Structures are given as C-alpha cells and as structure tokens.
Amino acid sequence: MSGHHGALTRGASIHGLYQPGHSRVHLLNPTAKMLGLVVFVTLVAVTPRTAVAALSANAVVVALVMVVSKLPARMVLGRLAAVVPFVAFGLLLPFIGTGTRVHVGAISLSVDGLWASWNIVAKAVIGAGAAIAVTSTTAITDLLSGLERLKVPAVLVAIAAFMVRYVDLVVGELARMRIAMVSRGHDPRWLWQIRPIAASLASVFVRTYERGERIHLAMLSRGYDGSLPVTRDVEPLRTSELCVGLLPAAIAFAGLAIVLWP
C-alpha cells in the first residue's frame, strides 16, 4: 500500500494541483468536499439561465470558498483558463443567434444568444471555480479516497489513479517530440502546418495503449483482481463535516427553490 501511495503522491506533486495549506477547507474531510462539489455543480447546472440572482449568489459562494482557502489569485485565474474555449464559444452566440434582436450602437445582438451566452459562461466559470477550490485543497490521494467512500465503481477509481500516475509520462513524450521537431526546423504556427503534430499524437496514442497493455499484464501476474488497495485511510465522516461540505450546495438549492417557487 505504501508503494501505491508514494506513486500517487509523486504524481500529485508533479501536477501541482494540490496547494498545501491549513485552512478550514484544506482540513475538511475529502468525502464531504467531493459530495458537496457534485451536489453543488449539479444544482448550478439545473438552475434556469434567467435566475441571474441565484447564479450570481453561487459565484459569490465559490469566491468566498477560495478566499477562506487562501488560494493565490494568480493560480486560480491560470486554472480558469481551461474554460476559455467555452467562454469564447458563448461570446459568439449573441452575434450568430436567431430570434429577437437588440441593437447596441451599430451592433445587432440576439436576445436568445445573449441569454445562452450568459448561461454557458456563468455555469462554466462557477463549475470550474468549484472544482478548482476542491482539487487545490485536497491531495490526490484524498480525492481518490473520497471517491472510494462515495462508492464510485472501483474501475473508475482505478482509471483515475492511473491517469494521475501516468499522464506525466504522456506529456513528457509529447514535449520531447515537440523539441525534436523544433530542432529539425519544424515549428508549426499555422493550422495547415499541423500534420506532423497529428502524426506525433497518433504515435503517442499507440505507445500509451501498448504501455497500458504491459502494465495490465504485469498487474495480473501480481494478483490484480480488479480493485486497487485502499489509497489512504480517511477519518470517518462526521455529521458536522458533512453539513459544512454541503453548505454551498444548500445555498445553491435555496436559490433554485426561490426561483422555482410558484
């Protein structure tokens, strides 16, 4: 168990997802945080797009959690960059949407497109912010333990564990291929120059598949029965911790209930 724990810990330190700290959020039981995240994000997703006040309150809740966690603003903004493609797509909708239109100066915008843009951008940022708050305050081993305690299928936990452990190898291979291409004079900057990169990605995919096969055979030869050892002993989930973990979800539920109340 110690070897498995060490491997995952090294993976966690490589990715830098976890930001060490001693805030109340850091010390909260990981199972409570995982459950709270799932419920909160689900409630945000089903909140009507016209419920601007409710979605704004959810955003404030996420911001407060980050403040309590004492997470660096630069780190949070850097990780929020992952939702930039969704934001960019959302910002296009007012221009390409149909239906009733409003005019802002010489610009014509679709009303439905504006609502759709708000819906995508707000929910993407809130959901990503909540995920960042949890992953930044919870070690990878604790996240996996939380998934186990929530009775997530063992095969999914195993996939997540190996993804954490081996994704750096894949990224490393891509980086080495990139350096090799640049050293040979190929530095693609335009879409029509991307063919060698696509070939490299295909090569990495094949290597990853073959490595996975070898690892699986090695595990079977060592008695693998479909489940991994317990990643880490987690303290029993106390009612008080569960209530704290579900507090953001409770606020989101209250906002949704007010909106849907007849």
Question: What would you note in describing this structure?
Answer:
This protein has two domains: 1-18 and 153-231, no CATH class; 19-138 and 232-262, no CATH class. Helices cover 72% and strands 3% of the residues. The chain has twelve helices and two strands. The protein has helices at 2-15, 24-27, 30-46, 52-69, 73-80, 84-96, 111-137, 140-149, 154-183, 195-221, 239-245, 247-260; strands spanning 101-104, 107-110. Helix 3 packs parallel to helix 11 and helix 3 (30-46) runs parallel beside helix 12 (247-260).
How are the SSEs placed, and which strands pair?
Layout: H1 2-15, H2 24-27, H3 30-46, H4 52-69, H5 73-80, H6 84-96, E1 101-104, E2 107-110, H7 111-137, H8 140-149, H9 154-183, H10 195-221, H11 239-245, H12 247-260
Antiparallel strand pairs: 1-2
